[in-house]
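Supplementary Note 3. Input sequence used for the single-chain structure prediction.
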Amino acid sequence: MGNNDILRTHAEALALFGERVHAVGEDQWEAPTPCAQWSVFDLVNHLTAEQLWVPRLVRDGSTVAAVDGDFDGDQLGEDPVGAWDRAAAAAKAAFAEPGALHRSVHLSYGTTPSDAYCTQMTADAVVHTWDLSRAIGADERLPDRLVNAALREVEPYVDALAGTGLFAAPVEPPEGADELTRLLCLLGRRP
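The predicted structure, written as discrete structure tokens, is reproduced below.
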């Protein structure tokens, strides 16, 4: 995937998650999600914090150790939707800066090319869009292009993800499962 495709796909994934954030009802912020022990608020807070990391890591060249703790806790405050919108815009802008995808970022598991970090962030946003959709009763169907990009990103290292303790064990997809079902099953979701 070329850099323009990476940026476009990332922007689409953020926009789709953002649509779901804007659809959260006032009475849904404490609703459970498919992510064990996370409410809707926790899930949106997680994705918001992830976006806040991007400018520091990509634009500023900070290390995880230097940023550690800056985005712990509540990043949403009294305006969860606005906090998400601002964080997503900042992440999108940081990745889109000239040369940003040619840099390296210093993540918890080592130095990684920035374009690979962007595709990982895209896959995370796609999967969590499904999680949020399920939690709030929104349309769980996701655009094929985004699902395909997330599946291509996750498949090569899905076995390593299971060992992190951050993901549920993969679920066997039904025979003839579509790409979305396969993606969700790889990440321990039960569609």
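The helical segments are 3-23, 40-59, 64-67, 80-96, 114-136, 144-154, 158-162, 179-186. The beta strands are 104-107, 110-113.
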